[in-house]
Write a structure and sequence with these properties.
mainly alpha; 72% helix
């Protein structure tokens, strides 16, 4: 970025930071999330600052980015924290063995799916892509993604060794999804 353009961006940030964080706080209800959200939106704005700075109202543009970034937070699956008085017990050998067996069953179940259904299920539920993103990757319509995902999940539900809750939720590696 040219020095003059970068200076104008830094001036914009200094002048609007507190207002943007306040807006983000109203969106998130948490000061820390608000600051993170503001930084994310400003990082995206920085990459496009040449174009944004030429608009009639750069602040409104960045504010829309802030709202979009906040919406994106909810599209992604978040890990919830569970605070306890004492650390949890370490996973026993039986639990770990069960996870390995379950993963093996999932991999075997996926291998039984037709190629397109397998691709849709993996991209949609394991990679956590949106239907539109999967459609773009596979070069098909979002409707095709929906129908292939439905058929693929239905087949996985009937596969021996897969618990229905795991197949439906699309949990993959390590069970974090």
């Amino acid at each position: 970025m040219q020095a003059e353009l970068e200076d104008r961006f830094q001036e914009f940030v200094r002048a609007r930071w507190s207002r943007l964080v306040r807006t983000a706080y109203l969106l998130t209800g948490d000061v820390h999330h608000a600051e993170d959200l503001t930084q994310t939106a400003l990082a995206k704005a920085y990459r496009s600052w040449r174009r944004i700075s030429r608009t009639d109202n750069p602040e409104a543009y960045v504010r829309r980015m802030l709202v979009s970034c906040n919406s994106d937070r909810f599209r992604k699956r978040r890990v919830t924290e569970a605070l306890t008085a004492a650390p949890p017990e370490r996973a026993g050998r039986d639990e770990a063995t069960g996870q390995v067996e379950e993963r093996g069953s999932l991999m075997a179940g996926l291998a039984q799916l037709p190629k397109k259904q397998r691709a849709v299920v993996v991209l949609r539920y394991w990679e956590d892509l949106s239907e539109a993103e999967v459609a773009e990757v596979l070069g098909c319509s979002p409707g095709t993604v929906k129908s292939q995902a439905s058929k693929g999940l239905a087949k996985l539900r009937t596969y021996p060794g897969l618990a229905p809750s795991r197949a439906v939720s699309g949990q993959g590696q390590g069970g974090s999804r």
